[in-house]
Amino acid sequence: MVKYKQEQLDAVFGSLEHAIRRDMLRRLARRSHTVSELAQKYDVSLPAISKHLKILEEAHLIVRRREGRQYHIAFDPRPVKTAMEHMQFYLKFWNQQLDSLKDYLEKEVTDNDE
Description:
The protein contains 5 helices and 3 strands. It is of the alpha+beta class.
């Protein structure tokens, strides 16, 4: 279970490293698109779009549904939620570091005023 979770996180973070994939997810979060609707915005080949979609699909960030000859792509937010839960540790860490720095600086100002 832990190994699967780590592999899932690696897939999510890896899929988010590319600007086209991040943009695709933003667009898909608003509404589903066909593959050709997604491809129109980018100056890359259709095979390149298919590779990007495959990476997103392997990370379980999108779901494909076939309707006739077209594929409709929808966003699945569940893996992002898992990644955000993972990142909460780092958010808490940095908040604690900044709070400690603030306390230190306030103490230094108070000590220098005396």
